[in-house]
Amino acid sequence: MIPFRKMQGLGNDFVVFDARDRAVAMTGPKARAIADRHFGVGCDTLVLITPGNAQADARLRFFNADGGEVESCGNATRCVARLLMDERGLSRVQLDSQGGMLICSDAGKDLVTVDLGEPKFGWRDIPLSQEMDTAEFTIPLDGAQIAAAAVLMGNPHCVLFVEDAEAAPVTQLGPRLETHPLFPTRINVEFAQVIDRDHIRMRVWERGVGVTLACGTGACATAVAAARRGLASRKVEVELDGGTLKLEWREADGHVLMTGPGKTVFLGQLDLDAYGN
Q: Which of 73, 79, 104, 220 is catalytic?
């Protein structure tokens, strides 16, 4: 039996395995089976904490609910940072990932701040299948042109600014944009309503998952896209279905800082061999 920890950040939920001292042989099919909410444990994303190195306290791997391994997950990073800081009595940890190094610090009141580094805007970085101005472009769909922005925030995001986030066609448009030919590695889709310069309401369709209650890197990408267009300030609160994150796109170095909670829900054990190959 392999121990695991169920965690959540604003309702974005995770099954977390600590593989620092004992290897956990994870595959896409196993991750998909564990993430199943009816026949498995149930989660948006499965996380492996693996050994770190001289620069990082640990390295993280992320598998979304469809079994696909992805580069980064902001909410999961906060959860793991909270776990490691509490475990070691630290106020700061560095976590490496496929999407880059993530510097995490205790923000008080059970909150964690994650420095996700600089966003990238190059069309090849995101990537897009053709050259475009990622600050503002259109996506052809069913004879219409969908206005969008794109940001790489460790993982790729497509941000749509809408008049009413509550009425946005998240479940209809989200999956079609996720797999649109413009995005060769698929993409996360954010539907963002700018309430005022300091407040954005956002809903999300997550790549390989579907609708989730929150997406940390998506909130960062939305804040950055809004600031690039002059729609919002560089310090904003982004209100998601599961709660609110505080974001700052720091002028001094261009880094994006995300502050929010990360909590353990319960501990458990499972037989990894019972969950596919």
A: 73
